[in-house]
Amino acid sequence: MTTYNQLFGKYVQNVTSDPTSTDAEGQIWYNSTSGTFKTALGSYGVWSSGGNLNSIISAAGSAGTKTAALNFAGYSPAPTNIKTQTESYNGTSWTTVNSMGTAKSALAGAGLQTAAIGMGGYTTASPFRVLGAEQFNGTSWSSAGNINTGRFWCSGSGSQTAALLFSGDQYNNPVRPTAATESWNGSAWTSVNSMNTAREFTASANAGPQSATIVFAGAPSAATPIFTATESWNGTSWTTVNSMNTARYSLAGAGIQTSALGFGGVTSTAQTVATESYNGSTWTSANSMTTARRELSGVGASNSSALASGGFTTAAVTTTESWTQSVTVPVAGSWSSGGNMGTARRGLGGAGTKTAALGFGGYNPGPNTNATEAYNGTSWTAGGNMGTTRREMGAAGTQTAALGFGGYTTGAVANTESYNGTSWTAGGTLGTARYNLGGAGTQTAALSFGGSPFPSTSIATEKYNGSTWTASGNLNTARTQLAGAGTQTAALAFGGTPVTGATESFNGTSWTTVSSMNTARNLLAGSGTQTAALAFGGYTTVNTGTTELWNGTSWTTNPNSLATARRGLAGAGTQTAGLAFGGFSTVGSNATEAWTGPSTTLNYKTLTTS
């Protein structure tokens, strides 16, 4: 009998624990601990956040791949506000490039980022359907002739010189949903065999060639009934093949005829995050998108590589999500309980790391305190008291070289104190006395920003050199009760009052407004760096435990929140190893929670005889 080793060149190993290297993909081993044969498969797909579009846009056309995409036209904020804008994506961020010649929405797109075609669409002028097509050469748009059947909410595939256009709404000419199909040879449009089912709001395998694509889902104009039907095109005619699992319309698609992905859209009840993968024969439910939306754009080379951008939730959005399929499975970050502080309090300062943190000052809810506590990863121990009893101060540094500045006693204060691991020493005075300010950096190179020099909010930023504070570039958004991360020359400010998700990045001289948090809030805590920050807790209209991660471009909400929703807490550590302590839930809190950041594991599968 032929053995596995003879067939594949490797023996089935006997191991006590599953391998962790990606080299295990496709191999089979016997886990003697669990008594099972196992393997690791490169078939796990997941959505992750990408860079936000510059324009809030819905019902746009798209072309290209996950790392070289084009998004064009669409509407925002209402169907009558139709756009010509074009944006180009490099796998990380979107850049605005030259606009289309005609404003339109609900159009089809095909081709590459540098050789795209936009077909059909909707305008606000009667008869509303667009006849003109446009082509993009990587720099500018030009005419690609008139299609035969004017339509919008249509789909397309192929290339700039060999495209296919199908489905759509022809707005009572003579009926709205159409099955009409047209092909483009680079110079003229030709009507070819129609689809089996007339429909609009469809999606397609838009990376497929003109001679081999699929169209799926959709609805007639009244959006009832909603379809799951899939049709396959062989270059001559359409054939009905296996249906999707979830009926929907206004979804997006990516891939080719034998490897497609369908995602988002609207079901009979609501917008959906549902994702389905097609292998040329059947549809399989896959991991869901983060943001449920309709009228989004999609591109991608296969069911293992796709990009979703824009769309409509309760309004048009800029959200981009990237789909990747591999042997690794993401594991969300999580919080776990740590040792309680000796003194429950809120409005305290925090410094240090996950296993070597410092908490100081605060109140609960009566008199302010000057108490200091040090954390060793398991328990808190009392340290030397601060010289000034205060709360709501800025903080920076480490457990044995911390800095506390500003804050509130019976009013805003400006004094600074340094901690050496045992005792506090008076330092320089802030130029502007304030409390509920943000802080970043080290004991000898700190940054203070924002806060409240009562009764107003502040944009003030100051740098500390270990002895004196010097004014620097102001924040763009005046606020108090905000959080910070990073260093004196590479800092991040986020959240605050008035309740906001606004985020700003500091380069040592000036602040730049970047993408906002997903959850606007104040009285939150943060940790990490300018390009890898963590935000947690705070107050919206209620206390929250929401946790978000910043990648230098955008914020992603982690599925797991703090166990204790609270505001006025302190933070320490990094994006991958953080600490949350103190705060206020229904009473002042002494709770400590330790953060372990997101990670990956292999996509293990247990082999059975079934």
Task: Characterise the protein shown here.
This protein has 610 residues and is mainly β. It has three domains: 4-42, no CATH class; 45-326, Kelch-type beta propeller (Neuraminidase, 6 Propeller), CATH 2.120.10; 334-596, Neuraminidase, CATH 2.120.10.80. 1% of the residues lie in helices and 39% in strands. The chain has a four-stranded mixed β-sheet, with no helix packed on it. Strands 4-27-26-25 form a four-stranded antiparallel β-sheet, with no helix packed on it. The longest helix is centred in the N-terminal third of the chain and has 5 residues, at 4-8. The radius of gyration is 28 Å and the shape is elongated. The two termini are 22 Å apart. The model is unreliable at 3-9 (pLDDT under 50).
Q: Indicate the structural class.
A: mainly beta
The total tally of domains equals: 3
Largest sheet, strands/sense/barrel: 4 strands, mixed
The CATH class of the largest domain is: Mainly Beta
Q: Overall mean pLDDT score?
A: 93
Please list the strands of the largest sheet in the order they lie side by side: 1-2-3-54
CATH superfamily of the largest domain: Kelch-type beta propeller
